[in-house]
Amino acid sequence: MLLAKASLNNGKIFLGHVETFGRRFLEEKFSSGDLIRSQVLSESLVYGVDGISSFTFTYLLDEPTGESLAAYMDSVKEFFEIQGFIKSPPNISLFLPRRAEYWVFAQNVLQLFRKLGVDLSLVQLPLHGKNVKLSEVSLIILADPPELDGDEVAFLGKYVEDGGAILVTGYPPTGLRPVLGVDERNVGKYGGVEVIVDYLKRCSRGKILGMGYRLVYCPTLNGSEPLAILRKPKGYGGVRDIGSYAATLKEYGKGLAVFTGVPAKTLLTDLSPFFLDLVDLCLAHSGKELKWEFEGLNELVDVVVRDDLLIAFNHGDKVRFKAKYSGDFSGYEVLGKALVSVKDRVFEIELGKVEYCCIKLTS
After folding, report:
1. Cα 327 versus chain centre, distance
2. How much is the mean pLDDT over the chain?
3. Would you state the pLDDT for residue 71?
């Protein structure tokens, strides 16, 4: 559900639909307890839920085994246990343009964010009016956006001018180019990215990250400064192209605007350390950082992360993954049936099918 993680202003109601009990047609078939549990608890990971309402058909409540209703009632109890831990929204939001043809792509890119463990909400007009609270959203990501309408450009420009940060990948919408400090140049095929600044956390100056042979948007600088350059594949008459910038940065008003012409899918799958560096660079503008990094996640594991909290819910078969915490803590509490161990601030977590764990850190 695309809007499931959209935070709304007070006074507005958002109804999320989750089909739990399934349908009975000609055969006596009902949803399994695992399916019901998966659907209910997946909605528990949304910030700002005040209540839950349910609807079903009488004959489904009377199904012979009684498992459907029991599974639902047990899941609702856990729903509110998990909700009790989520007291604030994520620091990061994904901008959802109003052009409906973009939404299918947004669903696909959200799966890639999930595999990296990047927890985010959604921002879209007119749901958020004309403002986003900077205290709640430190970074808005635009993943390969289409051209934006005038209201969307004005909204994002004001957000940056007031102190927020944006990270745009793939294509710079025409209206946002003054904010990003780039102009149109060309689209070309390149084989890698070379970092040319000293202050990224994971990728030092001179580090080269290969990405195969991919189409990349190459901007002309117009008030921004370069963070990295693109490299041509070997055998193309010199592998370094100084004029082809892989990422740029511009201070705009009180805020920060970062652009990379590398498409989101390539960034998230082939250049994930570079992408996480760009995210951390943007978060640092408001004094924040990515506290958790993951290894071994897949698209069937949902995560919620805060500075002192990790919640993971597994929709699929048993999975093992690692979660590295960047800060200090004196202890931790685990809720759920997961197997959890920790060494040198790295948590090793094993989740069974349709299981969750909440890890709460203490300082």
Report:
1. 21
2. 86
3. 84
The DSSP line for 155-197 is HHHHHHHTT-EEEEES---GGGHHHHTEEEEEEEEEEEEEE--
pLDDT tens digits, 154-193? 999 999 999 999 999 999 999 999 999 999 988 988 989 9
Structure tokens given for 112: 């890639």
Which residues is 331 bridged to in the sheet?
Answer: 362
| 258 class by beta-carbon count within 10 Å (0-12 exposed, 13-18 middle, 19+ buried) | buried
Instruction: Look up the pTM and report it.
Output: 0.89
Q: In this model, does residue 22 exceed pLDDT 90?
A: no
Contact 134/286 with Cβ under 8 angstroms?
Answer: yes
Alpha carbon distance 7, 166 (integer Å): 18
Please answer whether residues 274 and 258 qualify as being in contact, where contact means their C-beta atoms are separated by less than 8 angstroms. Answer: no
Question: Over 90: is that where the pLDDT of 202 sits?
Answer: yes
d(CA 106, CA 122): 10
What letter does residue 119 receive in the DSSP assignment? Answer: -
Structural domains present in the chain: 2-83 (no CATH), 92-284 (3.40.50.880), 292-362 (2.60.40)
224 touches 249 (CB < 8 A): yes
d(CA 284, CA 303): 22
Task: Indicate whether 297 pLDDT > 80.
Answer: yes
HSE-CB of 98 using CA atoms within 13 angstroms: 11
- Type of residue numbered 268: L
Contacts of 151 (CB under 8 A, 6+ apart): 125
Q: What is the 3-state secondary structure (H, E, C) of 216-272?
A: EEEEEECCCEEEEEEECCCCCCCCEEEEEEEEEEEEECCEEEEEECCCHHHHHHHCH
The two three-digit tokens of residue 31, written as one number = 């949803």
